[in-house]
């Protein structure tokens, strides 16, 4: 089948999110100018550069009590920093609980029963037990097509890795099984890996 997104599609549910999969989940922690912590998962997330290391995530919605966006974006506009926490399979329920729509200024860490720790390089909280956390300084916030669509780019200025996830000098994803977003209400976890050697290596 073929369809043009501007015309809609004949399926019961939008297939776009099921096509662009799996997507890593950026569990974004921020702090507003008044010191209130926020935590929310975003599945439009990825790394985008090695040197310096940089990441991006996109927000595609809005809240009634925030000006034209969501809490994460509003906080980053105020402070210029954020932290990306990696979601392991064991924390899937806590991650889901942190996605609840709460009043602006509410603390999702407390709401979802998640232990927090301080970041080292930025004024922000992080998920204390996450397999890894990336402390970021915003480099760009870009408005893209769509009424409430924004992309944030950040330079990674600090990296936390849980010691049990480092095996033989490598960060071993099978130790914690990263959670990824699929389409609809579906998720997956990484349990097996294999190696492919590039022709030029």
From TrEMBL:
<feature type="domain" description="Flavin reductase like">
    <location>
        <begin position="18"/>
        <end position="173"/>
    </location>
</feature>
<dbReference type="GO" id="GO:0010181">
    <property type="term" value="F:FMN binding"/>
</dbReference>
<dbReference type="GO" id="GO:0016646">
    <property type="term" value="F:oxidoreductase activity, acting on the CH-NH group of donors, NAD or NADP as acceptor"/>
</dbReference>
<protein>
    <submittedName>
        <fullName>NADH-FMN oxidoreductase RutF, flavin reductase (DIM6/NTAB) family</fullName>
    </submittedName>
</protein>
<dbReference type="InterPro" id="IPR012349">
    <property type="entry name" value="Split_barrel_FMN-bd"/>
</dbReference>
<dbReference type="Pfam" id="PF01613">
    <property type="entry name" value="Flavin_Reduct"/>
</dbReference>
<dbReference type="InterPro" id="IPR002563">
    <property type="entry name" value="Flavin_Rdtase-like_dom"/>
</dbReference>
